[in-house]
Here is the input.
Amino acid sequence: MGRYLRTLRRFWGTALATQLEYQLNVVVELLAVVLSLGGSLLLLSLFFGPGRELGGWNWNQALIVQGFYTVFDGMTTAWLRPNLGAIVTYVREGTLDFVLLKPIDSQFWVSLRTFAPAGLSEVVLGLGLAAWGAHQSGVVFTPAVLVTVLLMLTVAAVILYSLWFLIAATSIWFVKTWNATEVLRAVLASGRYPLEAYPAPLRLLFTLVVPVAFLTTVPAEVLLGRASLPLLALGFVLSAVFFAAARSFWLFALRHYTSASS
Here is the structure.
């Protein structure tokens, strides 16, 4: 474990040094994040304006959901897209061979090789927005609530990573997975609104098939004291199932990988 932590520190230290070579980009990207969040809030206000509710959620409560959506959108920008989006390049150029020859787990390498600092600002803004919405909703931030929210955010991160990785791993057979990941991002965008805002069939889809609900709505319900224990347990089960599926599928894909030297 210590070797992997040292490797991760070197990976991300190198990535940060590379990104900071162009410091003006940091300002431009931060401005883009703020404008994007402003547009999302404007769209949200069309459904959850003052005095209006949708699915039993008011404006301040919907801000919590939007905040968590922004957190995971930032995580996608900082972590998933730079790493998992590069798998197809490794396969196409044959450089996946070099990854497989390294004395380190290949899934660890392709999943954490780099990161984009621009996404971190989105994560911070999302957490701030969720905290503000919770404060305005009268939430009391007890240690138990904070720990439970942190656990559910971890569950959500594992689910999101596993879904994205499952699609990225198909690059072993198909070198054009960009469209599939964009479809996934479009589906995940539905998480910017509370689950109760959707019809019953979509609520079932977003809970069990593509569990978008556990990315945004469930952590928000934990803050608001609405989440039931069975629902939280279901989140842990789904995260374990999806991660195991992603791991198994990666090992299966590698058995079908034809290296550039063969």
User: Anything to note?
Assistant: Residues 2-255 form one domain. The chain has one domain: 2-255. The radius of gyration is 19 Å. The CA atoms of residues 90 and 130 lie 37 Å apart.
